[in-house]
Amino acid sequence: ALAAVLAGDPAVLLLDEPTSMLDPVAAARVGRVLAARATGEVGTTTVLVEQRTAGVPWLPGRTAVLSAAGRLVADGATADVLPGDVPLPVRSRRAPGDVVVRLTDAGFRQGGREVVAVRGLSLREGEVTALVGCNGSGKSSLLLGVAGLLGGRGRRAAPAVALVVQRPEHQLLARTALAEVAVGLGRRVPARDEAALAGLGAVGLADLAEADPFRMSGGEQRRLAIAATAVLGRRVLLLDEPTAGLDSRRTADVAGLVAAAAAQGRAVVLATHDLRLARALADQVVVLAGGRVVAQAGPALLEDRGVLTAAGLDAATERVA
Question: Which of the residues 186, 227, 247, 290 has the least number of beta carbons within 10 Å of its own beta carbon?
Answer without folding.
Answer: 186
